[in-house]
Amino acid sequence: MDTFVQLVLNGLMLGGLFAIISVGLTLIFGIIRLVNFAHGELLMVGMYLTWIGTTQLGVHPYVLAPAVVLVLFVVGLLIQRFILQPLLEARDAHVQIFATVGLSTALINLALLVFGADLYATPSSGVRDSIAIGPYRILVGQLVMFVCGIAVVAALHLFMERSYLGRAIRATAQHRAAAQLMGVDVKRIYMVTFGIGAACVGLAAVLVAPIYPASPTVGTYFVLTAFVVVVLGGMGSLHGAFIGALIIGLVDSLSGFYIAPDLKEVVIFGLFIGILLLRPTGLFGLGRGSE
Amino acid sequence: MLTLHDVQAGYGRTTILHGINVEVRAGEVVTVVGANGAGKTTTLRTIVGLVRPTAGRITFEGEEIGRLSPHEVVARGITLIPEGRQLFPFMSVRDNLRMGAYTPHARARMAQTLDEVLDLFPRVREKLEQHAGSLSGGEQQMVAIARGMMARPKLLMFDEPSLGLAPIIVSQVFDVVEQIVRTGVTVLLVEQNVFRTLSIADRGYVLENGAIAMSDSGAALLRDDHVRRAYLGI
Predict the structure, then answer these.
(1) Would you list the DSSP string of chain A?
(2) Could you say which of A17, A115, B7, B21 has the lowest number of CB atoms within 10 Å?
């Protein structure tokens, strides 16, 4: 029983991290209608940035969070403005998806060129210390991920529901032409949306870096899982992504122990295929809500 | 206030408008009537920037607006209440109205505008917290009109406000349009309900196959033989 509770705790903490990554992915899909295959590489970029900042400035990785989030927000903005937007004007939307695949490959190779294939471990002072909760133990870094996950989802929810910009983002997703008639600059909305999605990944990168070493392909593992989360939660649904992230975190943790560590991805992707077969709209599917 | 000068526009290679001239003066109620497919909706979409004119000039208060994006046109004080209502279905009616006041100019006076608009639409006030998508067609049309007014436009354009509504609701919609006209907003109205429309319009244009066939005062067009035969079935 103790083991089970410990595994559940681990799973929920991991779910917090998946939530941050997935929320950005699902936001970009829900609003821009774009599957961003370069999402993992944005995580990778953020992790290298964290490594550079930590080793060069000698500060704790967490201190870099505002800076990395801001840089990734701007990077996201620029990707939308200079890569995806011209494609939207030129051709049909599928070209944009291929562009994100191309961007992903380009970023991986850029990282290989600059950093080589070595692993870059960000110094992790205190992040790996554990806190005792009764008989259970949680790493500081895990707890921070979980708290940040909840905070990010809550903040995004409030932003979307309460602010003018958030409302305009939702309006654009629900009826693009009508939003334009209200005076919404749809191109700007898309830029901001991609920026926010990238900024979420920036935060995730800062939290992951002290626990997991950076490498050119580090994004793949996390973001493949995030795709499962997004599909499970329902593509485009923020709270779906949160619930889905917790579920996948639990599945990851429990199946890794009770089945086999090597097979946990088999279980996760088995679940992925099962969702697609049985309930392709996911738990909180967006099937509705679009034009 | 608004002038269309030899405006051509269309979709892809298909030209819909073959050089039309339309003028709307401040304080007027102007209507464009015509059959299905004559280009009425395209005219409004071109003015608001959703369709780019391929030739000709559109000026609003002396400024060329033919190359502007919709949000830039809206910011200059032109609002289109689109055909088919086009509400945000998964937002509350209140949030739909808030979206109507998105431009900085409208946002600054939103609370006051909301009160004024809701006085005009008491039924909408009762539905403020409901999802717009859950309303009936007539209620949705009222919300769409209210949302357009939230922008405090200088020029308010209606595209087929009575389309797809039951006759009694159509009558209510026209009552509302007349009330709005009385508030002094400049109105450009496109409708298939030619009789009722010409009755409230100062001037009207008859659009046939993408060209202006005739233009006159609303009353004169109502008396015109061609209009009576072609559009009023008299």
Answers:
(1) -HHHHHHHHHHHHHHHHHHHHHHHHHHHHHHH----TTHHHHHHHHHHHHHHHHHHH---GGGGHHHHHHHHHHHHHHHIIIIIHHHHHHS-THHHHHHHHHHHHHHHHHHHHHHTT--BPPP-TTTT-EEEETTEEEEHHHHHHHHHHHHHHHHHHHHHHHSHHHHHHHHHHH-HHHHHHTT--HHHHHHHHHHHHHHHHHHHHHHHTTTS-B-TTHHHHHHHHHHHHHHHH-TT-HHHHHHHHHHHHHHHHHHHHHT-GGGHHHHHHHHHHHHHHH-TT-TT--SSS--
(2) B21
How many beta carbons lie within 10 A of that of residue B102, not counting itself? Answer: 26
Pick from B69, B74, B91: CB nearest A171: B91
Query: Using one digit for the tens of pLDDT, what is the confidence trace for B184-210?
Result: 899 999 988 888 899 889 999 999 999
Question: In angstroms, rounded to a whole number, what is the distance separating the alpha carbons of residues B219 and A100?
Answer: 59
Q: What is the CA radius of gyration of chain A?
A: 19
* Confidence band, pLDDT 50/70/90 cuts, at residue A290: very low
Question: Minimal Cα distance from A184: which residue of B?
Answer: B71
Which one-letter amino acid corresponds to residue A116?
A: G
Cβ–Cβ of A181/B95 closer than 8 Å?
Answer: no
Q: How far apart are the first and last CA of chain A?
A: 49
- Interchain pair A174, B89: CB under 8 A: yes
Give the ipTM.
Answer: 0.92
Under an 8 A CB cutoff, do A167 and B95 touch?
A: yes
> Does A175 reach chain B within 8 Å, measured CB to CB?
yes
Q: How far is CA B227 from CA B31, B44, B147, in A?
A: 14, 22, 33
Among candidates B91, B100, B102 on the partner chain, residue whose Cβ is nearest the Cβ of A174: B91
Q: How far is B124 from chain A (nearest CA, A)?
A: 19
User: Which of A182, A284, A288 has the highest number of chain B CBs within 10 A, making it the mutation to test binding with B?
Assistant: A182
For residue A139, how many other CB atoms are within 10 A of its CB? 18
Q: Where are the domains of chain A?
A: 15-215
Give the phi and the psi of residue B160 in degrees, each rounded to 5.
50, 60
Length of chain B: 234
A167 touches chain B (CB under 8 A): yes
Q: Is A89 on the interface with B (CB under 8 A)?
A: no
Query: From the list B70, B89, B151, which residue is nearest A180 (CB)?
Result: B70
Provide, as residue numbers in chain A, all residues whose Cβ is less than 8 Å from the Cβ of B69: 180, 185
Distance separating alpha carbons of residues B7 and B32, to the nearest angstrom: 15
CA distance B22 to A72: 49
Size of interface A-B (CB pairs under 8 A): 70
On whether any CB of chain A is under 8 Å from the CB of B89, the answer is yes
pLDDT value, residue A265: 86
* Partner-chain contact A182 B102, CB within 8 Å: yes
